Amino acid sequence: MKTINLTQLLHQSQVESLKELIYQQQEQFVDDYQLVNVLDEEVRLIFKNERDAQMFYTDCQFGHRFLKNVVVRYDMNDEKVLVLRPIQSIISLLKHNESSLLTISQKLGINFEVEYIQAFTNHHLTLEIENGQMKNPECTLYVNLEHMTFGLGRLYKLMRDESDFYALNTSIKQIRSETIL
User: How far apart are CA 92 and CA 47, in angstroms?
Assistant: First the structure.
């Protein structure tokens, strides 16, 4: 799998900015597939211990309720994992505002890992949140340059522009389609 940079992707797409590409591909995706929200995608929060997961869950259900329009539930296979869904925008959960994972981490004094894998594209994001700060983000996008809409049509769920791209330490992997005879 070949790695390409943002400049190469923008050049191939014949657009000036990532923001423009995201908007263009989202519009094309909706036109092509007649879908706006494909699935109730989810973010997994992985805690170091059950107590921190329980504190986060309890605060979201009965306390400050920092997260708006997101359901928090336990992963049935692991008491140290919480699942958030539906997710409209990952990046909005990572900004310093009232309803963000950073705020919850800071207010409750708990740390956790964040994991997101986008359905169909396998774009993935992993990072740690420690003391209200985002640490060690790694985001990988998988893009077929011949059929970009499928891979980039829902990129808006991960990021909005170049600043988000760099903040999430994003890499782009070029994939190729297999011909089926």
Answer: 20
DSSP code, position 140: E
Distance from chain centroid for Cα 90: 4
- Please state whether the predicted TM-score (pTM) of the whole model is above 0.70: yes
Q: How far is Cα 176 from Cα 181, in angstroms, rounded to an integer?
A: 16
10-23 per-position pLDDT tens digit: 999 999 999 999 99
CA-CA distances (angstroms) from residue 15 to 22, 25, 163? 10, 11, 17
Residue type, 162: E
Joined tokens for residue 67: 């997260």
Q: What is the CA radius of gyration of the chain?
A: 17
The DSSP call for residue 157 is: G
- Strand pairing partners for 127? 114
What digits encode the pLDDT tens for the residues 127-138? Answer: 999 999 999 999
